[in-house]
Amino acid sequence: MKDYNDIELVIKSRIPLIVIESHEEIRVVDMLRQIAINIGKPVFKWSITEGLERIDRKMAPQKHNSEPTDVLGHIKAVKNPGLYILTDFHPYLDEPVHVRLLKDIAIAYEQTAHTIVLVSHQIKIPAELAKFSAHTQLALPTKDHLDRMVRDVAREWAEENRGQSVKTDPKTLGMLVNNLSGLTIRDAKRLARNAVYDDGAITQSDLPNITKAKYNLLSQDGVLSFEYDTARFSDIGGFIKLKRWLTERRDVFYGKKEVQHLDTPKGVMLLGVQGCGKSLAAKAVAGTWGVPLLRLDFGTLYNKFHGETERNLRESLKTAEAMMPCVLWIDEIEKGIGTSDSDGGTSRRVLGTLLTWMAEKKSAVFIVATANDIEALPPELVRKGRFDEIFFVDLPDERVRETIFSIHLKNRDLDPQKYDVKKLSTAAKGFSGAEIEQAVVSAYYSAHAQDAELAMMHLLDEIRQTRPLSIVMAEKIDYLRNWAADRTVPCD
Ligand code: ATP
Prior knowledge:
The structure is a single chain. By secondary structure, the protein is α/β, with parallel strands linked by helices. Helix content is 50%, strand content 13%. It is built from 23 helices and 13 strands. It has helices spanning 2-12, 25-39, 68-77, 96-107, 109-112, 127-130, 143-160, 170-180, 185-199, 206-218, 240-253, 278-289, 298-304, 309-322, 333-336, 346-360, 379-382, 398-410, 421-427, 433-449, 456-465, 469-472, 474-485; strands at residues 17-21, 43-47, 51-54, 83-87, 115-120, 133-137, 224-227, 267-272, 293-296, 326-330, 365-371, 389-393, 489-490. The strands form two sheets. A seven-stranded mixed β-sheet has the order 7-9-10-11-8-12-13, with helices on both faces. The chain has a six-stranded mixed β-sheet with strand order 3-2-4-5-1-6, with helices on one face. The longest helix has 18 residues, at 143-160. The radius of gyration is 29 Å and the shape is elongated. The two termini are 53 Å apart. The relative contact order is 0.08. Bound molecules: adenosine-5'-triphosphate.
């Protein structure tokens, strides 16, 4: 109803050119038809395939007006007021003659009172027409609306199945409605039908499929990817402070009533030494909070969409908002928003877009940005208040190394109790988590080659043969530590 009122108001405000960006053409056309009937204007719909058709009264399509130039010429010549819906006209807006014809029609509004409504999934209005036009988008359905729709779907199923009722519980139903938010009513209904019609029940097992299907509907450009592979806190050794910090904020992130007075967490930056678990930690936030993990790939954003980088970033952020609650992992953030101006200012504008979004964001999209290279990090990004916290991820200490050995032995179905992890940890001084994992993997291979069980000897051999990054890159790591000392908090 809100959309109906808003669009009616725009039409009544005597704006000659209205732009509606929507994938829901049928719904928009139907709404416009009702509005036109209500205000007593004849209403016509045009498409390149069907030509011009009057839709408030049944008349045959006028095929001769199917060419874009002809239809605009026709509208310009008609003296009686009318509402003209042009569907998918966007490719023809590049033609100067169409721009001029639209402008002629707009200028003549006082005499003819024609309203032209352009309806497409995406419309870029030429500057010459901007002054005559209003841009509007359909609001997405509210939670109440979605809840009613899901109940209607359940009722339909019951009617078709001899009055049996759909099996569900209020919590799962609520979660389904949450998962559907951000979609148009048509798409949401299709997913709800899929969930109900396969087995007559809405269960927890439907939810991951809905989340994935929703992601596929929302994101078609490959900049944002849905990460199926998440982790748990128990998969990470160390990160004690980060784990505590996240646990304390979980309820607020979920918007629980009892903690409504606390600020919604925005996100964290994890900065530090390579291979020490930053990516793993990003995955674990999503896994532990039980929300989808979306990964924003800045590299693709730049390469694939040259010239459209900011628009694509905005689209990706919009998709992330539609997926909320979710974790948005921006991997190697410094790569996308470097400090140099060599790219014609694109990376500066991308940084601006990101910072504005972060500052204004109210949604439950929790950002985890990871970075290695402090040189490339713009100071604006690490200034206090941008992220809730910047955590420094250092090489694991002796105790944490023990845990990491245990985790990676367990991951390979080996019993850590059978190994002297303390001794392994001492031997692996200066190793990153990734290097510890690699030592376990290689030692296991050696044991296998000897047809033997993995023994301490294999592990210690591997450790001895490794020259860890902390030695190879000692200076760089020292520099990183110094930089981090008064700008970040340690993870452990
Ligand atoms: P980079 O900066 O190079 O991307 P990173 O800090 O993101 O590295 P990860 O990719 O998370 O590091 O680490 C690589 C792998 O090393 C992980 O998938 C995990 O198996 C192991 N690892 C690293 N740190 C830890 C840790 N603290 N606990 C358990 N495993 C770890």
